[in-house]
C-alpha cells in the first residue's frame, strides 16, 4: 500500500514472498527460506530465477507507484530485504503498541497500559495471513502470532481491572473462558472481575466450574494461585487485580517477534521426565500414544496423535493435533501452536518434558 492505495502484488506466490519479507522487515531473508515458504517446502530446482522474476515484478509495481523500488525491496545476501518502518506494517504497529503497554504496566500506569494494549489489538482485523492459509509458513505464523494476541488481550484486561473497570470486562471474560476453558489465567481474571463487581456468588460458581473442567478434562486440580484466589473470595478479602499470571504474560509479551529469523530456534531436543532424551529431527517430531509416533507416550490421557514439533521460518513450533486434552507450554494450554524457547516446559497428558536448544 502506497499513500493509502493498495498495490497489486500478484498471486499467492508473490504475496507469500512479500508477507515473509514484511514479517522480517529490515532483515535479510535467505532465498532458500523464501523458496520454502513460497512453494510450501517443495521448491523447484530453479527457484532462484523464479524469485528474481517475483522481485522484478514487485519492483515494477513499486516504481509505477512513484517510490524507490530498489531502496524498498533490496537484494541483500543471502537473499532479499524489505525496508519498511514498523509504523508502515500492522504487525510492527501491534508490537510497538504492545511494548509500550508492557512498559506502562511495569511502571504502574494502568490507564496508559490499557490504552496502549487496546491500540495494539486495534491492529487486528481477522486471522493473520488469512489469504495464504493452507501454506505451512502462513499457518505456523498465524498460530504463533495468535498466541501473542491472546496474551495482549489478557494483559489489557489486567490493566482494565486495575483501572476499576471490572464490570466492563465480565462479558468478554465469560466469552473467553468459554472459548479457552483450560486457560487458568482467564478464569482468574473472570473470578476477580465478578468479585470486584460485587457478584461473589457468581465468582464462587466460576471457581467451581473451572475446578470441574480441569478435573474432567485433565484430571488435575487448579493451580495454587487459583486456589488462593478462591479462598480470598470465600473470606471476602480485598483482591489485587492482575495477580493471576500477570508477570508471565508481560514477560511473554516482551519476547522476540515471532518471525525474527536471526534469533529463531532451529534445533533442539526433549528431555522427558522418565529420563529419555529425544532429538528433534530436521523434518520434525510427532508425539502421541500410537507406536508409529517419534515419541510414544503410554498414557490414556494422550491422544493417538497428540502433538507435533516442526520447523517453520520463525523457529521450532509445537502444534496441538486436535488432541482431547491439549498441549501445555509454560503452564498454559496452547491454541493451535506456539514457538519453542530454550528451557520451555511442555506437558502432554501426565508427562512433562523440557525443550533444550542445541547448537545450530
TrEMBL record:
Question: Do the record's keywords include Transcription regulation?
Answer: yes
- What positions does the DNA-binding region cover? 1-84
User: What are the GO MF terms of this UniProt record?
Assistant: DNA binding
Q: Mind telling me which SMART domains this protein's record contains?
A: BTAD (SM01043), FHA (SM00240), Trans_reg_C (SM00862)
Which Pfam families does the entry link to? BTAD, FHA, Trans_reg_C
Please give the InterPro entries that the UniProt record associates with this protein. AfsR-DnrI-RedD_regulator (IPR051677), BTAD (IPR005158), FHA_dom (IPR000253), OmpR/PhoB-type_DNA-bd (IPR001867), Sig_transdc_resp-reg_C-effctor (IPR016032), SMAD_FHA_dom_sf (IPR008984), TPR-like_helical_dom_sf (IPR011990), WH-like_DNA-bd_sf (IPR036388)
Keyword annotations for this protein, in alphabetical order, are: DNA-binding, Phosphoprotein, Transcription, Transcription regulation
Record-annotated OmpR/PhoB-type domain positions? 1-84
FHA domain mapped to chain residues: 285-334
Coiled-coil ranges per the record? none
The lineage's top-level taxon is Bacteria
Biological process terms from the Gene Ontology for this record are: phosphorelay signal transduction system; regulation of DNA-templated transcription
Q: Which Gene3D superfamilies match?
A: 2.60.200.20, Tetratricopeptide repeat domain, Winged helix-like DNA-binding domain superfamily/Winged helix DNA-binding domain
From the Swiss-Prot or TrEMBL record, give the protein name.
FHA domain-containing protein
Q: Which organism does this sequence originate in?
A: Antrihabitans stalactiti
Amino acid at each position: 500500500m502506497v499513500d493509502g492505495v493498495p498495490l497489486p502484488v500478484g498471486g499467492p506466490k508473490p504475496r507469500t514472498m512479500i508477507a515473509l519479507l514484511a514479517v522480517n522487515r529490515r532483515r535479510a531473508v535467505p532465498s532458500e527460506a523464501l523458496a520454502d515458504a513460497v512453494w510450501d517446502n517443495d521448491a523447484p530446482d530453479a527457484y532462484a530465477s523464479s524469485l528474481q522474476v517475483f522481485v522484478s515484478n514487485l519492483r515494477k509495481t513499486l516504481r509505477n507507484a512513484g517510490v524507490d523500488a530498489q531502496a524498498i525491496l533490496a537484494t541483500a545476501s543471502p537473499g532479499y530485504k524489505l525496508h519498511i518502518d514498523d509504523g508502515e506494517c500492522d504487525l510492527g504497529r501491534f508490537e510497538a503498541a504492545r511494548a509500550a503497554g508492557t512498559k506502562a504496566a511495569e511502571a504502574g500506569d494502568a490507564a496508559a497500559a490499557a490504552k496502549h494494549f487496546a491500540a495494539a489489538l486495534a491492529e487486528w482485523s481477522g486471522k493473520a495471513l488469512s489469504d495464504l492459509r493452507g501454506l505451512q509458513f502462513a499457518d505456523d505464523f498465524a498460530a504463533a502470532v495468535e498466541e501473542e494476541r491472546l496474551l495482549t488481550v489478557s494483559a489489557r484486561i489486567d490493566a482494565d481491572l486495575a483501572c476499576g473497570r471490572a464490570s466492563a470486562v465480565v462479558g468478554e471474560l465469560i466469552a473467553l473462558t468459554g472459548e479457552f476453558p483450560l486457560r487458568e489465567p482467564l478464569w482468574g481474571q473472570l473470578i476477580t472481575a465478578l468479585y470486584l463487581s460485587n457478584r461473589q456468588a457468581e465468582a464462587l460458581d466460576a471457581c467451581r466450574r473451572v475446578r470441574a473442567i480441569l478435573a474432567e478434562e485433565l484430571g488435575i486440580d487448579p493451580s495454587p494461585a487459583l486456589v488462593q484466589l478462591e479462598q480470598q473470595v470465600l473470606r471476602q478479602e480485598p483482591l489485587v487485580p492482575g495477580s493471576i499470571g500477570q508477570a508471565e504474560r508481560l514477560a511473554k509479551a516482551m519476547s522476540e517477534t515471532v518471525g525474527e529469523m536471526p534469533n529463531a530456534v532451529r534445533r533442539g531436543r526433549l528431555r522427558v521426565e522418565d529420563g529419555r532424551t529425544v532429538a528433534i529431527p530436521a523434518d520434525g517430531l510427532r508425539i502421541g500414544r500410537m507406536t508409529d509416533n517419534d515419541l510414544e507416550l503410554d498414557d490414556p490421557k494422550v491422544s493417538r496423535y497428540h502433538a507435533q514439533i516442526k520447523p517453520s521460518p520463525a523457529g521450532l513450533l509445537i502444534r496441538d493435533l486436535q488432541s482431547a486434552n491439549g498441549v501445555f507450554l509454560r503452564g498454559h494450554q496452547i491454541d493451535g501452536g506456539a514457538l519453542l524457547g530454550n528451557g520451555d516446559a511442555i506437558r502432554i497428558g501426565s508427562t512433562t518434558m523440557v525443550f533444550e536448544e542445541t547448537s545450530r
